[in-house]
Amino acid sequence: METTGTIHFISEKKRVSDKFTVQEFVIETDEKYPQKIVFNLINDKVNLINGYQSGDTIKVAFNLTGREYNGKYYNTLSCWKIQPINGISNQENNFDENVEVPF
Questions:
Q1: What whole-number distance in Å separates Cα of residue 54 and Cα of residue 44?
Q2: Which residues contact 32 (CB under 8 A, 6 or more apart)?
Q3: Whose CA is closest to 78, among 19, 17, 25?
Q4: How do residues 41-82 score in pLDDT, each as one tens digit?
Q5: Assuming Cys at both sites, which of 10, 13, 36, 82 could form a disulfide with 25, CB separation 3.0 to 4.6 Å?
Q6: How many alpha carbons fall within 13 Å on the CB side of residue 32?
Q7: In CATH, what class is 2-84?
Q8: 77, 39 contact by CB (below 8 A)
Q9: Are strands 2-10 and 20-28 parallel, antiparallel or unpaired?
Q10: What is the three-state SS of 44-73?
C-alpha cells in the first residue's frame, strides 16, 4: 500500500533486543480531513527516515498487518520504502551551506 503526506514527527530509535530495533514516524495527509498516521520502521528499515525531517513531504510504501493479543486486536503499518515527493530527499541534498565554492 502507499500514501503521501508531510512528516509531522520522527521518534528516536528504540532497541528492544539484540535482534529488534524499531522507530516510529508520523505523517499528516493532505486531504479534506487530514489524518495523522503513525508508521513503524523495523530493524534494517530504521535508516530509511535518515535525512528527512519534520515538514518534508514524502510517499510511504507500507504493509498493513494485524494481530490479536490477550483478546485485543492491533494493527501495524510497517514502512518499507520512503520517497520524497519533490524527487530530492535531504539524503541526496546533503551539503554544507558554509563551504565556499569558487566560481
A1: 22
A2: none
A3: 25
A4: 999 999 999 999 999 999 999 999 999 999 999 999 999 999
A5: 10
A6: 0
A7: mainly beta
A8: yes
A9: antiparallel
A10: HHHHHHCCCCCCCEEEEEEEEEEEEECCEE
For the stretch 21-31, pLDDT in tens is 999 999 999 99
- The residue extents of the domains of the chain are 2-84
CA distance 96 to 58: 23
State how far the Cα of 27 lies from the Cα of 66, in Å rounded to an integer.
20
**Overall residue count recorded for the chain in this entry:** 103
Q: Which 3-state string (H, E, C) describes 6-29? A: EEEEECCCEEEECCEEEEEEEEEC
Q: How far apart are CA 76 and CA 92, in angstroms?
A: 29
Does this model's pTM top 0.85? My answer is no
**Angle at the Cα of 30 (from 28 to 35), degrees rounded to 5?**
45
